[in-house]
Design brief:
The chain is mainly β. 9% of the residues lie in helices and 36% in strands. It has one helix and six strands; from the N terminus they run ββββββα. The longest helix is centred in the last third of the chain and has 8 residues, at 69-76.
Length: 86
């Protein structure tokens, strides 16, 4: 499997949402076709490369239908600690 051009620090988005949900912390750890994604307020999650829809402008877009329920719940709360207007 050819790895897309993804680097640590790229922002992560979900295909059916507009806000950033996390950041890439690791790419193909231990040679596996996966990403390690940090989600604010929840920690790190392993995401299969098969869930990547596109990569552009230092952004990784994931398909929500290919993500684990635990990760989807974390994404839903990624911005809970933010204060509006700041």
């Amino acid at each position: 499997m050819k790895l897309p051009n993804i680097d640590i620090g790229f922002q992560v988005f979900v295909s059916d949402g507009g806000q950033e949900v996390g950041a890439v912390r690791g790419v193909a750890p231990y040679g596996r076709p996966e990403l390690v994604v940090y989600v604010e307020n929840a920690g790190e999650f392993v995401v299969p490369l098969s869930a990547v829809v596109s990569v552009h402008d230092q952004k990784v877009v994931l398909e929500s239908g290919k993500l684990e329920p635990k990760l989807l719940r974390a994404i839903g709360h990624a911005h809970d600690a933010e204060e509006p207007g700041l």
